[in-house]
Design a protein that fits this description.
- With about 500 residues, the protein is an alpha/beta fold.
Length: about 500
């Protein structure tokens, strides 16, 4: 969706081109920024960037306090990077999306904006916001052009021979690779400066109603330099063993790039280009060491394409309508125990404490904890999805929704309802020496391995008389695995495909 330059420009002594930064907080491989710079040069006008803070909308979208702090720090880093290119930057505030048009119109009048560039966002509320924006810009005579920043291939462009969106990942992945293989994957460089560097800008701060709504995110460095350094280190040191080590939370085997992808500090094109530079055969050969991580990047794209094809996923709907018949137990005390890492299953609890303390959780453990909540405790996946969305520093609607519905068995290409992760066998298999568990559950430091992996054994003595060296008593298992599994099979049997 784009518009050509208007015939009538805003009546102002000033004039400029503007770029609205959203989930693309970077200067490199940014199509919208590149086009905005070209337009500004062609017209001999300055370029201004802006970001819009929407506190009430963030609350509605369950943006968490650590994520909010990370975004604010990233916006400040972006502002400094733009200043070095001679591009001024503004932070705009409006409460929610209903006030966006008023805010944009006032900004256009104040700055003399002739044209706005921005990256599309796939979520339904953001789509509606941009449809209203397009109508406004037509009315006030301001040009508007959108680019696709968040996926390698625009949502809706990867389809079956019948023209439909794929419902299964594997054929989507195959077609996605075919389409990508037909073009060069070359990230755009940082644009050349438009003007002399500007003075160091003042620090920006989001205006939020509750001063306690931001939580320190300092252990996640911000900026393109930090993101690129992490990417390069992963490609050089971990990618070759990613397929073998990615499921073990005690190992440094994953990229930890998800926060940078979520807010566009790093683009998926940059990731795939770096991967193919190291393993050029990964796009075509299944046995390439880079294939596993390529598939993970494709899963991210798959879920975003799903949001485009089925907007109801943005509204908390089950992809599989049979899921509407599930009778969830939704016990608030059990949900609280899960949130706080008090289920009595060490791997589940260690994972939840990792999330609560760091704002991040290992991907294998996201599946384990989601399966435990939805199947062992029969708590509606939407409860867990919202909790993750607020707690995760990389909270992203598409990936979060896709992962939770996959775990619950209600999603597109979901795991079968009868596949129920055993938290004890998962613990033995993926944290065999319990080093990850002991890191986040120090009260279990002196427990024997067998008891850590099988917390139901010798329960009466172990739970009533905690170790002298334990920092706190550890609770007994909240449910017995076999009984919970049978209960889940009964409750989720409504997901059986009809004849």
């Amino acid at each position: 969706m784009s518009q050509s330059l208007p015939n009538h420009v805003p009546s102002s002594e000033k004039a400029c081109v503007a770029i609205w930064f959203r989930s693309d907080l970077r200067t490199s491989d940014n199509q919208a920024l590149w086009l905005a710079c070209e337009a500004a040069r062609a017209q001999g006008l300055p370029l201004r960037g802006f970001y819009m803070a929407t506190p009430a909308q963030w609350q509605q979208h369950s943006v968490g306090p650590m994520q909010l702090d990370f975004i604010e720090r990233s916006v400040n880093q972006l502002q400094r990077a733009l200043a070095s290119l001679g591009i001024a930057f503004d932070l705009l505030h409006c409460d929610d999306f209903s006030l966006v048009n008023v805010t944009v119109e006032e900004y256009c009048q104040r700055q003399g904006v002739k044209q706005i560039f921005a990256g599309r966002e796939v979520e339904i509320n953001e789509q509606r916001r941009d449809q209203a924006l397009a109508q406004l810009t037509r009315t006030i005579g301001v040009g508007l052009q959108f680019t696709d920043e968040h996926c390698l291939l625009p949502p809706g462009s990867v389809r079956t021979q019948g023209g439909e969106m794929y419902r299964v990942f594997t054929p989507f992945f195959r077609r996605w690779r075919e389409l990508l293989g037909s073009e060069a994957i070359m990230p755009l460089p940082v644009p050349a400066p438009l003007a002399p560097a500007l003075p160091k800008p003042a620090e920006l701060s989001f205006k939020v109603s509750n001063q306690g709504s931001k939580q320190d995110s300092h252990h996640w460095p911000v900026g393109e330099g930090a993101a690129r350094q992490r990417l390069d280190s992963f490609i050089a040191n971990q990618l070759a063993d990613y397929g073998q080590e990615r499921d073990f939370p005690a190992l440094d085997g994953t990229s930890c790039l998800s926060p940078y992808l979520a807010f566009g500090i790093l683009s998926p094109r940059q990731c795939v280009a770096a991967l193919l530079n190291r393993f050029p055969e990964a796009m075509a050969e299944d046995n390439s060491p880079g294939r596993s991580w390529l598939a993970e990047l494709a899963w991210r794209e798959f879920y975003r394409h799903l949001l485009h094809a089925w907007p109801q996923l943005c509204m908390g709907r089950n992809f599989n309508v049979l899921g509407d018949d599930i009778v969830w137990r939704n016990d608030p005390q059990e949900f609280a125990a899960w949130c706080e890492g008090r289920t009595g299953y060490p791997l589940v609890d260690a994972a939840m404490r990792q999330l609560n303390q760091t704002g991040w959780m290992h991907n294998r453990l996201r599946m384990v904890t989601a399966s435990f909540l939805t199947k062992h405790l029969l708590v509606d996946w939407r409860w867990g999805e919202q909790y993750f969305r607020r707690a995760l520093i990389d909270g992203d609607l598409a990936a979060n929704n896709g992962g939770w519905q996959w775990s619950a068995g209600t999603g597109c290409d979901a795991q079968p309802y009868f596949r129920i992760f055993n938290p004890m066998s998962q613990s033995e298999k993926f944290d065999p020496d319990a080093s990850f568990i002991r890191r986040y559950l120090p009260e279990l430091a002196h427990w024997p391995l067998k008891q850590i992996h099988h917390p139901g054994t010798a329960a009466s003595s172990r739970f009533t008389e905690p170790s002298l060296f334990a920092t706190a008593a550890y609770p007994p298992p909240i449910v017995e695995h076999s009984a919970a599994r049978q209960r889940a099979l009964t409750a989720l049997s409504v997901l059986k495909k009809s004849a």
